[in-house]
């Protein structure tokens, strides 16, 4: 009965609660990881850091995250998606509380690295939970709604952090941020209760009908022996790298290059977050209700990204209207495709390898995420131009579009 209800055209109350639980949990992950980029313009002045030192805090998170996304996905397949997600939120709570009391460059850098480590399993766990609760006809819409938490996190932190920072300092902004994981931990614990209609499979059925449990390494080998997995990995390397490169640098670019104040920068990035929220839900709905393949829609949405980066980079100084327009447009370009690419990362995987496959692909996402800010820093150091740095990064999504054209999702899984 629960299976037939779960596959009906309407969402059940339990499905709504599950999406709310993982949405809130992953929202917290994004608020904590983006906290440094939001307060960086003020914090680096207070701590007497160079721009490169401040940028290294962004890189430290992504290095830690990249190290644990694959093991985190494998552990999620082994121990369960809910357990790994709750562990990640608890880790965020502990580390963000500690960051309020950082005193110098090295202890803060170590905490940002640890924050990345404890956050590693979060995306694989959340995507795994979606596959347990939603069939293929509703999965992209569910993923699209879930994905809105990423850009909503950007909106939330830019709504409160600059104002708190101006009146009470950057440590107070981090302190407020540290409260969120506690609320998410409690809510997700209760929201994710119950037995899913499509439970995680821990074994594979042999020809004789026997169920054989595979080792984590065996699942990993099977997961990466797939062209679509590699194409999605390349897509993530370039597209996700560009997305978080430009996002993490946007506040700094607006303040240092366009000469706006931190509150105006926060408002612009809130618009960025709002447009990306809307675009991700729209992308999921289109994918679920279209006969076109998901990878085709992902390529179309990703092609929007490059011209929006260029437009943002060429925003005239002092033009508030153009700043808001291009920041909003870049929100669509940076996030609309991610609904479909995240959905593809579990749809190209067998049922017992979803955490492993999404973890493997997410390794490349995170490698791109920490290499892009490093590249931007090197380009800025060599050219002295924020604009040139952004224009070079704008080529990355084009490479990702080409890779997407070689992805073939599983029709059997999509029409499950």
Summarize, please.
It is a multi-pass membrane protein. Helices cover 79% and strands 1% of the residues.
Q: What is the N-to-C succession of helices and strands? A: HHHHHHHHEEHHHHHHHHHHH
- What is the general shape? globular
- What would the average pLDDT be, to the nearest integer? 84
The tally of strands reads 2
Q: Helicity, in percent?
A: over 70%
| Distance between the first and last residues' Cα | 17 Å
The main sheet comes to:
2 strands, antiparallel
Query: Reading side by side through the largest sheet, how are the strands ordered?
Result: 1-2
| Class derived from helix and strand content | mainly alpha
Low-pLDDT ranges: 411-416
Task: Output the number of helix runs.
Answer: 19
What is the CA-based Rg, rounded?
20 Å
Strand content: under 5%
């Amino acid at each position: 009965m629960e299976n037939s209800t779960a596959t009906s055209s309407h969402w059940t109350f339990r499905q709504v609660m599950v999406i709310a639980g993982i949405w809130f949990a992953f929202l917290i992950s994004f608020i904590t990881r983006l906290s440094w980029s939001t307060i960086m313009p003020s914090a680096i002045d207070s701590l007497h850091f160079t721009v490169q030192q401040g940028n290294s805090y962004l890189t430290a998170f992504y290095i830690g995250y990249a190290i644990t996304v694959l093991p985190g996905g494998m552990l999620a397949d082994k121990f369960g998606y809910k357990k790994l997600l709750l562990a990640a939120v608890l880790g965020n709570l502990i580390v963000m509380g500690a960051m309020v009391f950082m005193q110098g460059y090295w202890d803060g850098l170590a905490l940002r690295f640890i924050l990345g480590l404890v956050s590693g399993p979060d995306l694989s766990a959340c995507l795994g939970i979606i596959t347990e609760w939603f069939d293929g006809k509703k999965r992209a819409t569910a993923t699209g709604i879930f994905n809105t938490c990423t850009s909503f996190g950007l909106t939330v932190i830019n709504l409160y952090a600059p104002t708190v920072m101006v009146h009470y300092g950057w440590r107070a902004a981090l302190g407020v941020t540290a409260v969120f994981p506690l609320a998410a931990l409690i809510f997700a614990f209760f929201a994710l209760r119950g037995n899913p209609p499509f439970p995680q499979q821990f074994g594979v059925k042999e020809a004789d009908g026997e169920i054989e449990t595979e080792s984590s390494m065996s699942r990993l080998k099977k997961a990466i022996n797939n062209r679509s997995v590699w194409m999605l990995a390349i897509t993530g390397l370039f597209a996700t790298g560009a997305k978080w490169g430009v996002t993490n640098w946007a506040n700094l670019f607006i303040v240092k290059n366009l000469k706006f104040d931190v509150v105006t920068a926060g408002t612009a990035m809130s618009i960025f977050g709002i447009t990306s929220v809307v675009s991700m839900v729209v992308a999921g709905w289109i994918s679920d209700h279209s006969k076109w393949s998901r990878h085709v829609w992902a390529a179309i949405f990703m092609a929007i990204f490059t011209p929006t980066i260029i437009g943002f980079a060429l925003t005239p100084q002092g033009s508030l209207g153009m700043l808001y327009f291009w920041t909003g447009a870049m929100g669509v370009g940076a996030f609309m495709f991610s609904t479909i690419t995240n959905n593809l990362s579990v749809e190209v995987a067998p049922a017992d390898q979803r955490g492993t496959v999404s973890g493997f692909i997410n390794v490349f996402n995170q490698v791109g995420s920490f290499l892009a800010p490093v590249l931007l820093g090197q380009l800025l150091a060599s050219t002295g131009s924020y604009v040139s740095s952004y224009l070079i990064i704008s080529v990355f999504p084009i490479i990702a579009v080409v890779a997407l054209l070689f992805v073939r999702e599983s029709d059997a899984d999509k029409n499950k």
